[in-house]
UniProtKB/TrEMBL annotation, chain B:
It comes from Salipiger mucosus DSM 16094. Belongs to the binding-protein-dependent transport system permease family. Keywords: Cell membrane, Membrane, Transmembrane, Transmembrane helix, Transport. GO terms for cellular component: plasma membrane. This is ABC transporter permease protein. It is a multi-pass membrane protein. Gene3D superfamilies: MetI-like (1.10.3720.10).
Amino acid sequence: MTLLSVENLAIDVTRDGESHRLVHDAHFSLERGETQAVVGESGSGKSLTALAAMGLLGEGLSVASGRILFEGQDVTALSEAAHNDLRGSGIAMIFQEPMTSLNPVRSIQHQLTEGMRLKLGLSRRAARDRALELLTEVGISDPERRLKQYPHQLSGGMRQRVMIAIALSCKPRLILADEPTTALDVTIQAQILALTSRLCRDHGVGLVLITHNLGIVARHAQNVAVMYGGRVVERASARALYNDPRHPYTQGLLASVPRLDLPRDTPLRPVPGAPPDPTVPLPGCRFHPRCPWATDVCRERVPPFEAEGDHEVACWNAEVASESRRREGVA
Amino acid sequence: MASYMLRRFLGSLVVMWAVATLVFFMLRLVPGDPIAAMLADAGGAEEIEAMRRSLGLDRSLLVQYGIWFGNMLQGDLGNSIYGSRVPVTEALAEALPRTLSLSLLAFVIAIVIAVPAGILSATRRNSATDTTVSLLAFLGLSMPDFWLAILLIIVFAANLQWLPAIGYVPLSEGFWPWFSHLILPAIAVGTAFSAIIARMIRSSLLEVLKSDYMRTARSKGLTPRMLMFGHALPNAMIPVITVIGIAFALLISGAVVVENVFAIKGLGRVLIEGILNRDYPIVQGAVLVVSAIFVFSNLLVDLLYGVIDPRIRLN
């Protein structure tokens, strides 16, 4: 059974009686033990998709259509109580901001063990023993001492390790990691990412890795879904996406990542323009105002999602864009 | 933490000294002569002079201050210079338990009402419950305590005759007599306090509920009870405790006024009579005690921070 399958998900925000669509069409899926990356810039709807799966969409936000199947069960249709049962033990989440994601007035021990005591029914002692194991596993030295400490006594990297330990603590089948390394030092980023992905693999946990950095997912994800303006625009295996990005936006993202295998003076090319404002209606492809290949049809009609093998893309001009890139690459 | 406590304690002593000094000199700046008040035009110039000398009021202000301060350090606040000439400490020792009983009972009642009310209105924001609580809080804040006191007497003492209207019975004579005499004044004093705390808990909780760590806690699938009492409240109470410390002064001053309505001879009564009679030692002593209560309740609040917030305790 597919572990997680997001199907045609749409999320609306309603404020002061006015409703806007923030996520138009998110879809991707992953199997147990796999890593799926969801890539896109701020406001592309990737975090909202994860929060919808957790049932933690904030005030005014709601799933408008589509389904999120976790082990075959549509979680968007669950009651709050049933969804709460799933949190932690079925689906766990790692958040972006380790500095503010831990409760400042509760000890690490409390924050790490309370879920286990509730969800796994462990005694105080058993939960503490498992907490020590988990801290060791996420690479925290002197776990005995750390358990007694409070978040402000830990560095950002250590706090994120604690977050990973918390996410793993109730033996979930799926972890949603929402930009887990964005707030960290560059040197720590790679460690945390490698740790997260190794632990998920070792424990057979599915991982959805949400990031704006295409560069960091190459090594850790089997599959990548690229989101733009609330829509998944390209979906492929990580290898296929890097070797042959078809959507102009994906190409733009890749061109803006610094690479070591190119000459040092190769200029980085940013994607011009800004992401679309969700409150302003935009017909056709949502990327067309920024797209170098945009034609009339792009301005009028939403491109359908077309598959070529495992590589899916939603672009009217994917052929042209991809052909041009190949020529450029050769030249 | 130990040095923090010591610093705060020494700081409190300095504040106490400043208050005592200020009160001493301010009283002497107030128009009105205690001798004139005592003799009420009856005595001649000689008698006035003799009395002035016997009370030490003929010496320079600094000498008077020195004597008073030296005696105070030894626990001697002097004698009342009016009427019975009782020692000030005796008058205060009689009045203090009444005011403290009243204030503490008012405090307990206020907290018992405010905490659940604040939690309810924060967790059910913009619901009918929230509106009701806000409305009641607004009402409670707007009603003058002495007016509420009179209203309570009319309803529960005069009309329903459930409770005594006036007076005070010490706790040593049984809980119910003590409680039944104090409950009405305590409600009158505590209502505004309760309203402030309930509003404060509401706004503080709303802030906390939006925080990242609450989202983390929710993502663990904790029960609503664990979320509220394990995560939200411990954080939300930090600013509330500050307000409790400051509002405690309001409670004491409320008690001073309400005591008069219920004819309880507490600090308020002592203070007001002292002022009317220009009874310097009594006023000085009473103000000193009130300010001590205020300063040390704030000290207590600072120490509570350490208990509730590890960021203070461990730095």
